[in-house]
Amino acid sequence: MTLPFYLRGLLLLTLIGCGWLLWQDTSDDLDSAPTAVVARPTEPAAPPSPVAATASVVDLFPAQTWTPAPPPTPVDTSPPKPPPLPFTVSAQWRFENQSKIVVLHGNGNQYTLCNRCSIPGRIVPGKMLDAHYRLDKLTDTTVVLTYMPLKHASTLRLDTH
Questions:
Q1: Are 122 and 113 in contact (CB under 8 A)?
Q2: 24: which of 10, 99, 151, 157 is 20 to 30 A away, CA to CA?
Q3: What is the value of pTM for the model shown?
């Protein structure tokens, strides 16, 4: 079987092209071949953590149940309540038809409350009793105190003798 001249030429060019591609492929591998280098690690490698090993595992068939989920726990959304009043009435009097003077005892201190008096250390409405309570109003029957962190007013009843 004889091949025509143009087919022989194409066959020869195909063989030359395949040889050239094979030569190019092997010459790159020889140039970039890794060389052996001895290197000492600066730190010992940490063992793989069990969390990382379990994080990559996906449970394709998780356990399922027909029982309904428990109801969510209710969240207390009520406003915060102030502490109970730490004050008690230890004395009260009226001098020469003036407004009532009240002495409160609480938090280890005594506080003298009056509307208009000249007693040293007195507390008049609008002044603070201690760091948390302010005297708002003093009448013949009540003492109104405001717990300042919550702005909550509390009333302390007085005896009416």
A1: yes
A2: 10
A3: 0.53
